[in-house]
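Table 4 source record.
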Amino acid sequence: MIDVAVLLLAGLAAGALNAVGGGGTFVALPALVAVGLSPVTANAATTVALVPAALLSAWVYRRAIVPVGTTSTVALTVMSVLGGGLGVALLLVLPSSSFDAAVPWLLGFATVVLAFGRRVSGRLVAWRGRPVGLGVGAVLAGQFVLAVYGGYFGGAVGILMLALWGIGLGLDTAVSNPMRVAQLAAVYLTATVAFLVASDVLADPGPPALVLVGALAGGHAGAHLARRLPGRVLRGAVLGTAVTMTVLYAIHG
């Protein structure tokens, strides 16, 4: 019963965090590892469990989605789908020991991005006096690379998207957040299809199902909550979760 409660609460928190600012992986992945799943299986199960919540959040945000500069939304989504598929392929093909060794570093990298990404992005734009001014090709190439990372691991990939669009095009975080949620849904959906077909995530469906149930409630509530809470509060909650989970994972594995 304790495991059930932990997984439901982890799913609730992960779905809400992904909807409001990113960081759901920091909660769901360690929780699944804690109940006995291997890191690779837990990573796959995290993606599968969070995709319905991501789709639900994207639906809530649907009327607020605006294009990323002059880049077609369809083209951007295609890059997310293709990159996410390649990331999953790398996860499934490479030895599991490679992912086990990489997880603490990936969590640490994602935490640093969460902590300093927005600040660095803002200072770069201020230093230049204007955004970098990325062309459509560069935006699509960057999206593909980020989607590969998202399919392989996914921690803070949404924050990286916001940083790319902010530095490259000067897009406001609040305005581009609905597009972030939509592109996360595209990456997660592609990865989920691949994981269900080619991984052992369904060998023990109970833990992912519990996270999924919690994440659905969290994703729906989080998308509505994000419109009401101050951005500083949301970022603080995500960052606090990221730091805590990264430290705990590094200590206990």
